[in-house]
Amino acid sequence: MRTYIGGHQAVSVNDFIELALGTPPELWLGEEGETEEERAARKDAARDILADNPELPDDVARIAAEVIEAHAPELFNVVPLTRPAGRRRPSRKGAAA
User: Fold this and answer.
1) Measured on CA atoms in the order 52, 58, 64, 66, is the torsion positive or negative?
2) Tell me: the pLDDT tens digits for 10-64?
3) d(Cα 72, Cα 78) in Å, to the nearest integer?
């Protein structure tokens, strides 16, 4: 089965990330072995993109939160913590000021 997003075929996880962000992840994360000139050019391009789209960091954070919420158990092997029965935290409503 093939997956298309906005007319573009996504065949890998990086393809999905790039299509969700509108930019390749390497633009933000860098690449191993990049030169100082390549790093400077990458950072300049990232600054230009953020200047054109100041909502991008919020969009990325929202997308990441949605992915974590939807897939936390399989991504992070998370086990929900429970409180022991009979032990409750004291209420702050009755505390004197």
Assistant:
1) negative
2) 777 777 777 777 888 888 889 999 999 999 999 999 999 999 999 988 988 888 7
3) 6
78, two tokens: 């998370």
13/67 Cα distance (integer angstroms) = 13
Position 22, amino acid = G
Which ranges in the chain belong to alpha helices (H)? 13-21, 25-29, 36-52, 56-76
* Cβ atoms of 52 and 45 closer than 8 Å: no
Residue type at 47 in one-letter notation: R
